[in-house]
Amino acid sequence: MRHDRRHALASLGALALTPWLPAHAQARERPVTPPLAEGPFYPRAFPADRDADLTRVAGQPGRAAGTPLEFSGRLLDTRGRPLAGRAIEIWHCDEFGQYHHVGAPGGSGDAAFQGWGEATADGEGRFAFLTIKPPPYPGRTPHIHFTVRDGRRRVLTSQAFFEGERANERDFLYRGLGRGAGLLTMRLESAGEGLRGALELVLGG
Ligand SMILES: [Fe+2]
What are the pLDDT digits (tens) for 172-202? Predict the structure, then answer.
């Protein structure tokens, strides 16, 4: 077989392997946000103050210690459609590395930090929390636990991370995500006296 004919056949083969998709199916499918372990610190008792501002606790003077963080994002399906009305809960440690509301508060934590909060995605799938940027604690890089609920049913439980943290690559859960880590890692920027970061959370079917 002459070289140019062989080349042409090879090109045809490549063409045949390229799937043809109708226009509506070519819309970018968003990758599903990977789940991660809930961990041992999901609340066993919830704070009386159940809102999306974790930096203040009703009846408690002052504000949570630490760097304020506006954590926002959108809940979407794989076609990019907003998942309005889903609840999202977050929980993470305080500025001193202590989790709250796990049933046996040690009393050493920050009483002005709510520890856990809940928001509901609006019509565009948007949610927003005001919290603090959690510090690392032994064995873990900084992270925010979250779970998304559809009614009472939990549909995604995972953890959010921060770009550029030195401890990310030493964190066994972060490393285990491989390329999926990017889907759970937010870039932070300055916002007033604190920081802000956002994540797009994509739920599978
Ligand atoms: Fe944790």
Answer: 999 999 999 999 999 999 999 999 999 999 9
CA 56 to chain centre: 22
For residues 90, 105, 45 and 156, what is the CA-based torsion angle, rounded to 10 degrees?
Answer: 30
The CATH number that applies at residue 158 is: 2.60.130.10
Residue 37 domain boundaries: 29-203
Round to whole Å and give the CA distance between 171 and 190: 25
| Structural tokens at position 20 | 């043809």
Specify the number of domains making up the chain: 1
| Centre of ligand 1 from the C-alpha of residue 28, in Å | 33
Q: How many Å lie between the centroid of ligand 1 and the Cα of residue 151?
A: 24
Does residue 121 lie in a domain region? yes
pTM of the predicted model, to two decimals?
Answer: 0.85
